[in-house]
């Protein structure tokens, strides 16, 4: 039997929102759990009961932005791929979105932070993309020998590669990337897919 007061979902939502603001404004290293708790109107102890570490709080805040569960499968896997890439694009172009991704690649990044980031942010996105492409392959819309795992990596990797060049990434990036990946897997785009 649980002891103590039940968790208040309003406090949870407030803490995660404040944590997102602090991450966007200052980055992970400068984010203070004490400052987040104070601004959210709770105590540091209450915050640590919910998220035992700073890494846990930061990755929960970022993962809380995902709306993947709100995007059910449709009868058009190609449209689902475009929708998923749009969601990725919105997420990675948020203030400090790309900086957070870059910080995960640094040698000095906290191992717990990196592991939680992979578990909560990277793995779900890759599973969703793999699921969409797997549905398309099962429906015969892609080549029978299509390498779906590499295609999943390309879906997000293309964005990072273009970003590293310093070029402006156009708003049409999700549609263009979906078309590129789809064709690379042997799919064709009919008029009904545009």
- Poorly predicted regions are none
Strand proportion, as a percent range, falls in under 5%
**Class based on secondary structure composition and strand pairing:** mainly alpha
Mean pLDDT: 86
- Tell the overall outline: elongated
List the helices and strands and how they pair.
Blueprint lengths: L8 H18 L6 H8 L3 H7 L3 H10 L13 H16 L4 H8 L6 H28 L9 H18 L7 H12 L10
What do these coordinates show?
With about 190 residues, the chain is mostly helical. It folds into 2 domains: about 10-65, Homeodomain-like (Arc Repressor Mutant, subunit A), CATH 1.10.10; about 70-190, Tetracycline Repressor, domain 2, CATH 1.10.357. It is built from 9 helices and no strands. It has helices spanning about 10-25, 35-40, 45-50, 55-65, 75-90, 95-105, 110-140, 150-165, 175-185.
What does this entry show, briefly?
The protein has 194 residues and is mostly helical.
Pick out its properties.
mainly alpha; single chain; Arc Repressor Mutant, subunit A; Tetracycline Repressor, domain 2; 0% strand; 194 residues; 2 domains
């Amino acid at each position: 039997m649980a002891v103590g007061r039940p968790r208040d979902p309003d406090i949870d939502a407030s803490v995660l929102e404040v944590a997102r603001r602090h991450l966007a404004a200052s980055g992970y290293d400068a984010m203070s759990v004490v400052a987040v708790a104070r601004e959210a109107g709770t105590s540091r102890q209450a915050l640590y009961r919910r998220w035992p570490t700073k890494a846990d709080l930061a990755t929960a805040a970022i993962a809380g932005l995902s709306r993947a569960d709100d995007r059910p499968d449709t009868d058009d896997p190609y449209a689902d791929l475009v929708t998923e890439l749009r969601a990725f694009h919105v997420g990675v172009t948020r203030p400090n979105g790309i900086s957070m991704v870059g910080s995960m690649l640094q040698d000095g990044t906290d191992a717990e932070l990196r592991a939680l980031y992979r578990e909560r942010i990277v793995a779900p996105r890759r599973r969703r993309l793999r699921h969409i492409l797997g549905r398309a392959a099962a429906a015969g819309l892609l080549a029978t020998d299509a390498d779906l795992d590499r295609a999943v990596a390309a879906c997000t990797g293309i964005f990072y590669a273009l970003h590293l060049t310093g070029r402006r990434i156009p708003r049409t990036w999700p549609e263009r990337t979906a078309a590129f990946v789809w064709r690379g897997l042997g799919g064709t785009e009919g008029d009904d897919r545009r």
